[in-house]
Amino acid sequence: MPVGIFRVCLVVITAIVNHPLLFPKENGTVPESTEEIIQKMKEREESLRLEQLRLEREIAEQEATQKSLEKAPQVVEESKEEKVRWDMWTALSMVIFLLIELWRQDFQEGNWQDTGGEEDDMAVLGKAFKGVTFPDKAVLASFYEKRILGTTGDMARMREMVEGFADDLLEALRSVCNRDADMEVEDCMGVGSMYENWRVRKPFVCDLIVPFAPPEPYCFRSQTWCSGDSFPPDEQGYGTIKVCRADEDVTGCICDKTKLGEDMLCLLHSQANTTRPSSEMEDLLCFKNTEYLDADQVMKWFQIAVTKAWNRISHKYEFDLSFSLLDSPGALKIKFRSGKSIAFNLTPVVQYENSDVYFISHFPRSSLAADLPSSTHWFLTFAVYERRFIQLVSKTLPANACHVSCLQILSFLHGKQCSLTGPSGLTNYHLKTVMLHLLQARPSQDWAPGKLEARLQDMLKFLEKCLHEKKLYHFFIGNGKVPAELGFPIIFQRAEPLNLFRPFVLHRDVYRKTVDTFHEMLRNMSALINEYTVHIPLAQTNGIHKESL
To answer: Where is the Mab-21-like HhH/H2TH-like domain (predicted)?
Structure first.
């Protein structure tokens, strides 16, 4: 009997080990469909049921044999010896079966080879970083002066020109819109690398966001993933926007929840206001048959309004205006008669309550909004607070601090490497997030201009660590150390940290490509910098061209 129980325990252990939730493949891809998972679970359940029936039959046979053997002591002693030998072989077979099952799980779907290769890559990553010889201060200073400052001198003039034209275009847009039915457009704001003074690669593109609000008597009521209701992991960082009447109670009137008699009337709501036709909500740019603002409908309305506004003022300018990218609805391009052009993005946004956090419909030149759960889900952008934080911290840093220089150099190196080997999963926003974390972590004196080399190494090491762990947290979300001077909403400070590298956990091919690109960037760093560096005496660069792998 104890041996039978031991066998049953081994089978139970085998079933537990085979359960997909015991050993989750963190770096694996998401299953293709729920039906496939259910089918596999049913097949596994059937096999375990058959195994259980077989063991029950064996246990019953052993008990019957044991009862019959009790009448013959001599036969029992001989059978015990054979039984022990048989049980040992059976237990050994079950252990081997258990090991085979563990190996099969790793080998299944080719994950066995991929896992080993990924661990090797991580080991190579650390060795490659330790073997790279960084350019010294003189080379970095020469590179920054020639390649960075030499190409960003006209950014201020471009920003001034784009802002002036955008203001004129939005004023014309207000004049062509119906004030009683169309959305109310506010003044635009500049965000991103062009307004934080660290963009280095051409073409220079200004990013402008345009807040808008619904016509009276309507208002927007927003809900984010951290507002209390549970959101799936793939919807973290998103929110929804509901279009309501301004005189409606947020919690809802009891007349919506209780059937009133024919002779009873709600004193708060007239019969005309209890329901709204779907056509009215669609006119308010809502998703069909819902009260939630539709990002696609908003972008269509905005494009049509911009086109009408340009037709009204085009006679004042000696250039043409057109939409430049199909996958980025707010991307505009100014084309001069000389052949030159200026690109900028004008993207409508919705303000979150009374803060400077905004719901943005589309991210220009970015994959952040490529996999939106639906067109009623809006991503939140903290670009205004990011710009303010950089400005606030810059006041406490030494003169000519190197934080922006580090970000510019890293952005240039990564962009140059991507132009050689193809795009990777890293974006300029990831690089800026690394700088923001280090700005908060390191003392102000560590950002003196003479420490450019050390801080650039810090950023690369921090990025290497984040890639290894597949974790790079959003700077503001879940950060309780945000300066109070910014007036940042407390709800986002108390939220769970948002991992910007979560796509690397879900998409291993993108992760491997990103790691390979990072490797190549480290190995080619000295060559890329020296390519744009003026000649420096050999005594200052004797260690630059040596690279130990």
So the answer is: 404-477
